[in-house]
Amino acid sequence: MKRVVILISGGGSNMIRLVESMTGDHPARPVLVASNDPAAAGLARAAAMGVPVAAVDHRPFGKDRAAFETALLGPILAAAPDIICLAGFMRVLTPGFVARFEGRMLNIHPSLLPKYQGLHTHQRALDAGDAEAGCTVHEVTAALDDGPILGQARVPVMAGDTADTLAARVLAMEHRLYPAVLRRYAAGDRTPVFLP
Ligand code: GAR
Is the pTM of this model over 0.95? Predict the structure, then answer.
């Protein structure tokens, strides 16, 4: 059984879908949900589902990302993960942290990568006049929002969309895509998943 650690920064709706998916004949189980924000709503939601939680506030570390990551590594290593899923984890990781988990760390990003790495993906898709948007699950490498694509899901951009309405449509697909990719990945299959 593969041990999965999920890193979050906020509400954790993707985390919830991942945790809910890991039952029955699924080849993985959640062993820890950790956040850089002690107030992240997802922590209480994970605890309510019976998953151990940890919080390491990044703020006292200021710009010292490596020191923050050293603190975060404590609970992560104690959980002995086989796979780490970034699920709305909004801290950029150092190459050193990424190297430690390369080949076993996934991220979900709310755009059709390689388009719109970074922030404000939905507004940028609208500003560009794109006819479709979507989300991508990829392996994490040292370059931000890069790395081999493990799954992608597309949604139409509708007339009158705002960044919020488009984000909601994309998020609904994230909730389908990430569990589908994790199931396949945990079984050792890196063939990309394409939805719908
Ligand atoms: C999701 O839309 C995820 O794709 C995005 O944050 C949201 C988290 O929502 N991630 C990024 O932008 C990473 N750069 P959630 O906390 O409800 O899962």
Answer: yes
